[in-house]
Design brief:
Elements: E1 12-16, H1 20-32, E2 36-40, H2 43-52, E3 56-62, H3 71-81, E4 86-91, E5 106-109, H4 114-126
Parallel strand pairs: 1-2, 1-3, 3-4, 4-5
C-alpha cells in the first residue's frame, strides 16, 4: 500500500467518466468551482493517476463504466486506500442507497445541475 500525504493543500479533482461529453461537462464544473481537474476514462487509469499524484482531494466518478471495476467499487477502494479523498458518485441510471456508498460520500443523479455540483464540491473541499 502506498501512503501519500494528502495535506490540506491538495486541490485537484479526479474526474472519472468514460463518455467524453459528460467528462467535459464534469471538468467544466470542477474548474467553475476553482479546482484543477485531472481526467480518467476508467478505474484503471484513475488508479494510475492516484498512485502518481499527491494533490487529489476529491474523486468525481460515474458509477457505470467499462473496465476492471465500476465507479461504485472504485469509490470503495479509494475510500479504503486513500481515506482523506472526498468522493462524489454520479449516475443517470443507478440510485445506490446510502449504505451502498462509502461513508461521507455524496451521490447525484444525472443530469447534473452545474450550480449544485459546484456548491457541493466547494463544501466538501472546505471541510477536508
Amino acid at each position: 500500500m502506498t501512503l501519500i500525504d494528502r495535506s490540506a493543500t491538495a486541490r485537484a479533482v479526479l474526474v472519472v467518466e468514460d463518455e467524453f461529453l459528460l467528462r467535459m461537462q464534469a471538468v467544466d464544473m470542477v474548474e467553475d468551482a476553482g479546482y484543477t481537474s485531472i481526467e480518467a476514462v476508467d478505474a484503471d487509469e484513475a488508479f494510475a493517476i492516484l498512485e502518481s499524484r499527491s494533490d487529489i482531494a476529491l474523486l468525481f466518478t460515474d458509477i457505470q463504466m467499462p473496465g476492471s471495476m465500476d465507479g461504485l467499487r472504485l469509490a470503495h477502494v479509494v475510500h479504503k486506500r486513500w481515506p482523506p479523498i472526498k468522493i462524489i458518485l454520479v449516475s443517470g441510471q443507478l440510485r445506490p442507497s446510502g449504505g451502498d456508498i462509502p461513508r461521507l460520500s455524496r451521490f447525484f443523479g444525472k443530469p447534473l445541475v452545474s450550480g449544485e455540483m459546484v456548491l457541493e464540491m466547494r463544501n466538501m473541499m472546505d471541510h477536508a
